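subagent[fold] <- orchestrator: predict structure for attached chain, return tokens only, no commentary.
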Amino acid sequence: MDPRTVKQGSCVIPKVDTDATLERSGLVQMAIFRPRFDPVVHRTRIAVSVLFAVMLAGCVTNTGAVPIQPGESGPTSTAVTSSRPVAAATDAAMLLTLAPVPPGAQGEASSPVQATFGAPQTPGSPDLVDQAAWWTAPGTMAAVTAWVGAHAPVGATVMGRGSSSTWGVNDSEYVVFAFAAQAPVLTWRTLSVTVAPDGQTQVAGRADAQVIWDPARSAVSIINPTELHSMTVTIFPGPTRREAPVGSRVTVTDPTRIRSVVAVLNSLPIDNSGVHGCPSSTGSSFAVDLIGRGKMAVANISGDQVECLGLAIVVGSAPPVSVDDPGGALLKQVASILGTQLPKG
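subagent[fold] -> orchestrator:
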């Protein structure tokens, strides 16, 4: 998931009131919500050096006390039954309560030092909720970071560690914990803790609970298999279908096979991963053309073999919809129809 760590503009979602235990903490929460952009989000090739250059845009912040305390059991959430952005905000508030905070920590109303002003890394998804809290505690950056890393919340695994530096001197260190997704709504759930020096004898800390919610597919992007007469699968030598096809082009008329592919297409979630890096070589691309009776085009899906440029579904005259293929279900169907393994990028 490293290619997703692109910092983008943000604005505020109203604070989510979780429960009455809020009064038990002096830690302060900042809730950030990135609304989904109206245009289709296409993955863009960008140099790796640019990935961390886009800074968070300034917004008004909404704050409120949030408890941060050790969890007694694995985190659970009933929020997925609510509307999707609210579900993500509620889940993020819950994850924030699981952040490991060292003994002697005192809550802060805002970032105590410059190094804890922002999250250590931020996914580029437009459907991201980031809730944050700050604290100060006695100790050194190295010692407190080690303590945090050794106290992973129940139900979480250490996803990664990192640091930022100026002229070779670390300004901050952080640990990122990953929690299981709650499909099909909450697809990314992490908790990061950043530690930075705050004078000689204490540190400043920041906890970020980041949750990405998946928007529901629109009704116009769903394909009706009963309208279809045939399906043509084509493989291309490069990342776009404008190049002359080589190798294989297969037309399928078996209704059972067509329904199987359409079932996969209709199950693909929205691709809301945002802007991220892509390798210089993306291998081959493919297209699936779905034809109705009278040889009228009903739908098309095209994409890059390694999904660097993403997958786009077009149904009738509706705008294209960017989708994701988790687990490669569609790629397996395409390879099976072509009777060959697709080339790798």
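orchestrator: received. Logging for downstream: Confidence is low (pLDDT under 50) at residues 1-29, 32-81. The longest helix spans residues 84-96.
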